[in-house]
Amino acid sequence: MEGTTFKRVKFVPNDDRDFGVTVRKRVREYFKSNNISRTGDYRMWIKVVVFPLMYLVPFGLLLTNWFSDNLWSFYGLWLFMALGVAGCGLGIMHDACHGSISTKKSVNDLIGKVLNLIGGYVLNWKIQHNILHHTYTNIDGHDEDIDLEGLMRFSPNQPVRFYYRFQAIYAWFLYGFMTTTWVIYKDFLRLIDYHKKGLLKMQNARFGVEMFKLTIQKILYFATFIVLPIIVLDVAWWHVILGWLSMHFVVGLILTTVFTPAHVVPSSDFSQPDEENKVHTDWARHQMLNTSNFAPKSRIFSWYVGGLNYQIEHHLFPNICHVHHRKISKIVKKTAEEFNLPYYSQPTFLAALISHAKMLHKLRK
After folding, report:
1. pTM for the whole thing?
2. What would the mean pLDDT of 317-343 be, rounded to a whole number?
3. Residue 352 contacts residue 261 (beta carbons within 8 Å)
């Protein structure tokens, strides 16, 4: 990408290449022999209906004013909306933006726009998540999921600051503000940054057009979910603001505690490129060394988090719908064992959170 500040990292394969080739071949054969589509099925479409309703129905009930005289019910509806927002992000938007819900791009694009409905911006997400995080997992300076802008240390390759000694304690509070800052101002900063780095050009997007669309989308979002309730509801305006902030705090906490235990854990490799911007390993092996599953036996949990507890399978096959992750995980695990590669997995979500907390403590210095 000449004329930009973004430098691609090259994965230079060695004798590990066969793992990636083999596991991809076996997974292809699984879908072919069972005559199964790699995209979503009826289980996916149930979520496409359920999660937006979990978000919009409580909001509609709020606007009726039936609950304005009972603040417990008022705030309860905002918190229930949080479950719907997180479900929309984890369970449907994520797959849509990876193009794995439907074989039709237009359908995936339409469903992916649910991110705009919950306050985000699709183009930014695709760059930050699909391109940077999935391609350069745990590589400092490229994977923005491990860049906390100095607030926390998520990689041993990042500089140490004195207050990181407490990060295993204050992390959980900061996590709750992840989507709040994202919705209010980070989308604007990211769009500017991606323009400077030339990443918008990779998506055939024009900065001026995207900034205009982003601004209009934010105005519509805040007008609908903050200004409208303030006008309509018989409660003080600050109750609406607190309700909205409470909703996003829960959403941020859910999303962050689902994503971070998959990569920021003691088992992660955190490989860095050399002077020539090369990582001397195969991309598939890099994913195995920097990703961990958790709670594989919990079907209810897996249903809600959109199969993201099977992060290994998702990172190796991001274009396969999450409803297939449990089945193909057996293939991936068996192949990893044959190639003497680790297949990291925590038995429960709690165990994964403890592992993440241990890593935060380890990275304090």
Report:
1. 0.93
2. 96
3. yes
